[in-house]
Amino acid sequence: MHVLRATVKRIAVPVAVLAGLWVLWESYRWVWSTTGWGWPFIVDEFAMPHLHDMVARLWDPAQTGGPMLIQLLLERALFTAREAFFGFVLGSVIGLAFGTLFHFFQLMRRGVMPYVVASQTVPILAIAPMVVIWLGGKGLPVWVPVSVIAAFLTFFPVTINTLRGLDSTDPRKLELMRSLAASDWETLWKVKFPSALPYIFAALKVSATASVVGAIIGELPSSIQDGLGGAILNFNQYYSLDPTALWATNIVTAALGIGFFLVVVLAEKLVVRAAPEQLA
Amino acid sequence: MSGPHAAAVSIAGVSKTFEHGSTVALDGIDIDFQPGEFISLIGPSGCGKSTLLRIIGDLIQPTEGMVLIGGKTPKQARLDRDYGMVFQEATLFDWRTVAKNVALPLELTGWTRQRRAARVQEMLELVELTGFEGHRPWQLSGGMQQRVAIARALSFDPSLLLMDEPFGALDEMTRDRLNIELLRIWEAAGSTVVFVTHSISEAVFLSSRVVVMSARPGRITRVVDVGLPRPRGIETREDPLFFELATEVRELLRESHGAGEAV
User: Fold this and answer.
1) All domains in chain A, ordered by first residue
2) Is B138 helix (H, G, I), strand (E, B) or coil?
3) Residue B80 carries which DSSP code?
4) B81 near B105, Cβ under 8 Å?
5) Mean pLDDT of A7-21
6) Partners of residue A172 in chain B, C-beta under 8 Å
7) Three-point CA angle B144, B148, B154, nearest 5°
8) Nearest to residue B219, comparing CAs of B46, B74, B69, B78?
């Protein structure tokens, strides 16, 4: 009963917010288009399509005589999801490894950390062509370079938070492990990692959505047409003719990001068994 | 063990100066604890009683002097898991159940799952927490958490138990009850206990001997023998001898510390 009520509340609140946003969107649209105000921009079908038109566009053909847009977008989303998933996993593994190494080796932290930070100031669009050249045409599937580009975006928060989490283990717990003559490995595995998990999961949540963005951006310089990146680029060019198609694509893209995020939240619920107040 | 007469803990000329500033935490501590004794270290804050406990446990190193635990260096005793430690905070792992918290030292020692489970049952029985195996630490009261910590410290049957103000954060009624329980556990386990406290009545009630310390520099003022009969219980606190000894300890603390500060 309690669980049911909590579930209803969890669903009802975001739905209510969505309804509120819809009301805001449509009222703004109505006020600006009836008064004809031109500031900050003129409101018409191109600037602000009706929300219901965006959703309805999903069930219209993608192109004349073609399949429904939603079918096309779901196929594209699946393709991008695979790139993003492998990028997420790769980035997380690298991030965990970096964070752990930096925790144990002060010299490595001093020497390598600045470059890890520097790597994130480089826009991925600037490194994507190199990755595509290095990894493309090696008999690997075309999406592999894209996953690597997504990983480039996701390893950073995992590195930072793993390090932070391992560093902030309760010193009293470490003293206890020392009194029990535990090895470094046992201390890492039985105390430091469990203590760091809330930090690591916070990073994984950031990475989950970033991996989707990374995959989409990574598709552009790779000229991959099978993913959402290709669809976005395509509908961008036809925006003045078919604005709701791009909006509809954005809805599907956002849904994919939310899906990734929710998977991490679910995994966290299953893995982290800390005191309730320690869960974000 | 080096011979049948080896002291449980032997402290010879131990001094500790902390690097930051020139704070002399301990100055020339000399004392032996016999096997099976219950020793309390009492003194004002800054007298180095916790420092002394940590030196015995090889968690920090003395600047001078030597400690032997059953004839071994503290480091060897730690590596051999000769002592169990209980801190002021229970220091339980939230991600482990009560049973798995108690089993932690046994996992490190490499006991099989089956042997661990049997021992955990035994220990929870000892601290009267049977039925709480599957609970999480945060579901227990402070007193219960501390009992889990005691069960964990005793799970691998160490000959020495080091306790750093284990009941300091508990209310007085819980503390009194746990004192009686601790004596029962101590008598059952037969280990030597070194117990740091700043409560006079707790020290007198529990101990075979009370080591009264003074601060700046940390020194032993006097060692008070507690001749109260065992087993001790609620009635012990009404024994005239209990009052006498508590008064003696209080006066020793006052002497060494100046009359102004209450302890």
Assistant:
1) 1-47 (no CATH), 49-278 (1.10.3720.10)
2) helix
3) T
4) yes
5) 93
6) 87, 89, 91
7) 140
8) B46
Please check the confidence at residue A142 and state whether its pLDDT lies above 80.
Answer: yes
* Cβ-Cβ contacts under 8 Å for B87 (sequence gap 6 or more): A172, A175, A176, B149, B164, B166
Beta-sheet strand order (sheet of B160-164): B83-86, B160-164, B192-197, B38-42, B209-214, B219-225
Contacts of A270 in chain B (CB under 8 A): none
* Residue in the structure block whose two tokens are 């309390």: B40
Select from A179, A187, A190 the residue whose CB has the most chain B CBs within 10 Å, as the one to mutate to test that interface.
Answer: A179
Q: Copy the structure tokens of residue A108.
A: 């490595």
- Of A80-94, A138-152, B58-72, B143-157, least confident by mean pLDDT is A138-152
| 3-class DSSP assignment, residue B232 | coil
Pair of tokens at residue B22: 């020139």
> Tell me, what's the pLDDT at B77?
97
What are the beta bridge partners of residue B17? B24
Tally Cβ neighbours within 10 Å of residue B113.
10
Maximal C-alpha separation, chain B:
57
CA distance B247 to chain A (A): 34
- What is the pLDDT at residue A95? 98
DSSP string, B3-19: STT--SEEEEEEEEE-S
| Tens digit of each residue's pLDDT (9 = 90 or more) over A174-204 | 999 999 999 999 999 999 999 999 999 999 9
pLDDT at res. A55: 93
d(CA B77, CA A108) in angstroms, rounded, equals: 34
The sheet with strand B9-17 has its strands ordered as B24-33, B9-17, B64-69
